[in-house]
Amino acid sequence: MVGVILAAGNGKRLAAELGFEQCKSLLSLEGRRLIDYSLENLAEFGVDSIYIVVGKYAEEIMRAVGESYKDIPISYLIQKSPIGIINALTVSLPHIKDDFVIQLSDEVFLNNRSEELKKEWESRDDDFFCGIVKEENASRIKENYSVCVDRDMKLISCTEKPEEVENLYKGTGYCIFSKECIALCRKSYGEQLGDEANLCDYMNLLVESNMTGKCVLVAQKEINVNTIYDFEYARKTVKEL
């Protein structure tokens, strides 16, 4: 299985708050870089290789991360323009021939379930897994995406930055897709995609195309670092856990 880390974002919100440009993926959080949390998840999941999609800070990330992580080879792919998660994903598609798992480089997962998740994936009857965490704070769900599920936790739909939430599940960037999902992504989205498409757009498209997705708990806690407040919250949470 292939792991894909999306690390091509410019981090404009954080840079504006800091007052200077900063490669968000390389921020140090309790002795580890943000991207290390994603690399560790993929290593624990048991991927055979890792692709990191990079953009503006390509050289900094390549120099800092190197060519392997825990003996797992790493390759780098360039996203020409930062126009969304799905556009970044399509950059990696020509290199993916089998099932793949994605991570965002600015997400912190605490007490992750990667090893258990791999076993669940191997015995699945679904086309993809949508990674979720339980979140008591509704405002944090509204800052990310919400999921609508049936009684078996099958994904009905997901909504980016919803105005209202109907449950305590927050969607994350930790998702797993079968190789059968690749063709639809290639057909529907291309590297020259002009409009920004997000992860919800893609998963909703899969559901509409009669593919099945299951929402699975991927960790005890997830923090998507977009602002200084998020970063400080992540630092406090890591210390507590």
Tally the helices: what do you get?
A: 9
Distance between the termini: 30 Å
Helix content: 25-40%
Strand order of the largest sheet: 5-6-4-1-7-12-9-13
Measured by DSSP, the beta-strand proportion falls in 25-35%
Classify the secondary structure makeup into a structural class. alpha/beta
Instruction: Let me know the average pLDDT.
Output: 89
Short description:
The protein is of the alpha/beta class.
Overview features:
241 residues, alpha/beta, 8-stranded mixed sheet, 9 helices, 14 strands
Set down the secondary structure blueprint.
Layout: E1 2-7, H1 12-18, E2 28-29, E3 32-33, H2 34-45, E4 49-54, H3 58-65, E5 68-69, E6 72-78, H4 85-92, E7 100-104, E8 107-112, H5 114-122, E9 128-134, H6 138-142, E10 145-149, E11 155-160, E12 169-177, H7 180-188, H8 199-208, E13 213-217, E14 219-224, H9 228-240
Question: How would you characterize the overall build of this protein?
Answer:
The chain is α/β, with parallel strands linked by helices. Helices cover 34% and strands 31% of the residues. The chain contains 9 helices and 14 strands. The protein has helices at residues 12-18, 34-45, 58-65, 85-92, 114-122, 138-142, 180-188, 199-208, 228-240; strands spanning 2-7, 28-29, 32-33, 49-54, 68-69, 72-78, 100-104, 107-112, 128-134, 145-149, 155-160, 169-177, 213-217, 219-224. The protein has an 8-stranded mixed beta sheet, sandwiched between helices. It is globular, with a radius of gyration of 17 Å. It starts with a strand and ends with a helix. 41% of the residues are buried.
